[in-house]
C-alpha cells in the first residue's frame, strides 16, 4: 500500500494499492509472556511471531503460519460460513508446547504449537528415505538415536468445538481456572471445557421468544482475570452486564448492570448505532473495565454501575459526519481497545491509520500513526493531530482529508512491556518503547 | 421539509443496506440488521413527526374538511408491514426520541381532521417505501435511490440497487 517515490518510470501503484481481501488482519493477540504474537486474517490463516530472546528489545519474527479455518457451508440454511478469524486467545502455558484458541463465526479450534529440534535417525528396518528395507539385507541390529535437526514448528489441531452457535461468534475468553473458556455470539454465551468438544453449557441466552421483540444483542464478552466465576458482556445498547456463575446455571439475570443514562441533548438518528459497545476488556487488576463505542472509550469501575468513571473522546470531530459515515458503512466499524500492563494507559484505533493512547492519570490523549510511508523502521513515532479548529499547525490533517478505508480496528499491548502491535489492514506494525519505559510516546 | 427529507433518505439507505446484507457472504449479520432497523424506525418516526407537523401548520391556514382518520391509520400500518422482516416492536423507539417540536398527539392516532387536499399527499403510502405489489416502472423511486449515492461525500458509495430488486426484498 502506498506510492513508491523511487520508480517514476513504471507506475505500479495500482498493483500496490490492491489489497487481497484474505490478507486483511482481523485479530491480534500476545500470549501471557509476550514472547509470542498471533495474528488471524480474513483468509482463515494464523501467523505466529516470536520475539528474539538473545537480543535485548528483540524483534518479532515469523515463527509459524497455518491455516486455521476454511470456508464452510451450512447446508441447512444455505449460508456460507466465512473463514475469517474473529478472535485468537492464548492459553496459559503449562509445558513446552503453546496452545491457542482461534474462532471464526461458528467454530472454535484449539491448536497446539510445539517445537521439534531433534529427529530419530538410524532405523533398523527403514532406510534413510523411510522405505522399508529388504529384510534379507539386514545383518545387524541398530537402535535409532535422536539427532539435532533444524528447528521445526508444528501446529496441530487438538480440539474442534463445533455446532455450539447459531449466530455469529464475536468473542472467546479463557477462564482464569485454566480449564474452561466462554464463547459469545449475538444472543448466547456458552461455556466450554477445553477437553470436551461435544458439549457446552449455555450460560447466557437473551434471545426473545419472538424475534420481532429483539432490541439488543451481545457484542463482546470476557472472563474476569482473577475471579473464575465472573464474566462481563456488553450489549448493542451500550450497557455492560457483570454475571456471577455461582448465582445460577443460567446467568440471564445479571449481578450488576452498568449503564450510562443517555444524554437527551445529543440524541440523533444514529444514537443507537454509536452507543453500541464494540469491545470490552477487564483491566489487569480486575478492578476496571474498558469499553469502546463508536466515538468514545470509557473506563468503568466494577464497584460503580451508574456510569463510567472516565470517558475519552477518540474522534469527536466525526459526530457531525455521522450521516456520511452511515452511508459508507463506517459507522458500523468495530474498534477494539486495550490496556497497557500497568493499567495506566488505554489505547484504541481510529481512521486514517491513526490510533490513540490516553494517559489515565493526566487524561491527555495522543494520536499516533501506523503508516509505513511516514515512519522508517526504528524512527521515533511523531504525534499527529486532526485539525478541528483554532490555529492550524503544520502536519495537521483536516477531517475531510481523513482516509476512512485505513482503519485501525485490531491491536494488542504486550502484557509486561511497552510494546504494541497494531493491525492496519494487511500490515502489522510493532512499536516498542525505547527511550523511557514509563513514557508511552514522544 | 429538511428533517423529513433527511429521515426519508436515511430510511432508504437502511433498506438498501438491509437488502444487500441478505446476499453478503457469511449470512445475515444480526447486530447490523438490528442497528439498521433501529435507525430506520427512528427515521420513520421522525418523518411522520415532520409530516404531522406540516399537516398541523397547514390546518392552521385551511378550513378543515372530512375527517380521514381511518385512511391515515391504514397508511401507518401498511408502512409497518412492508418493512417487517427484522423488526423489533414499536414502543421502545418512540419513548426516548426527542421531537423536533413538541407534539401532543401520538402517531397511531393520526390526525383527527384532514383536508381533502392534504389527504392525497400524506395518507398515500410514501413513495420511497417498497410496495408489496411488483412494479416494473418506478422512475420516482429510482431517483431517490440514486440521489443519495451521488451525494455521499465520504468513501465509497453503496452500489445502486435495481429498483425491482429493492421492491422484491420486502
TrEMBL record, chain A:
<dbReference type="InterPro" id="IPR000009">
    <property type="entry name" value="PP2A_PR55"/>
</dbReference>
<dbReference type="GO" id="GO:0019888">
    <property type="term" value="F:protein phosphatase regulator activity"/>
</dbReference>
<dbReference type="Pfam" id="PF00400">
    <property type="entry name" value="WD40"/>
</dbReference>
<protein>
    <recommendedName>
        <fullName>Serine/threonine-protein phosphatase 2A 55 kDa regulatory subunit B</fullName>
    </recommendedName>
</protein>
<dbReference type="InterPro" id="IPR001680">
    <property type="entry name" value="WD40_rpt"/>
</dbReference>
<dbReference type="InterPro" id="IPR015943">
    <property type="entry name" value="WD40/YVTN_repeat-like_dom_sf"/>
</dbReference>
<dbReference type="GO" id="GO:0000159">
    <property type="term" value="C:protein phosphatase type 2A complex"/>
</dbReference>
<comment type="subunit">
    <text>PP2A consists of a common heterodimeric core enzyme, composed of a 36 kDa catalytic subunit (subunit C) and a 65 kDa constant regulatory subunit (PR65 or subunit A), that associates with a variety of regulatory subunits.</text>
</comment>
<keyword id="KW-0853">WD repeat</keyword>
<comment type="similarity">
    <text>Belongs to the phosphatase 2A regulatory subunit B family.</text>
</comment>
<dbReference type="InterPro" id="IPR036322">
    <property type="entry name" value="WD40_repeat_dom_sf"/>
</dbReference>
<keyword id="KW-0677">Repeat</keyword>
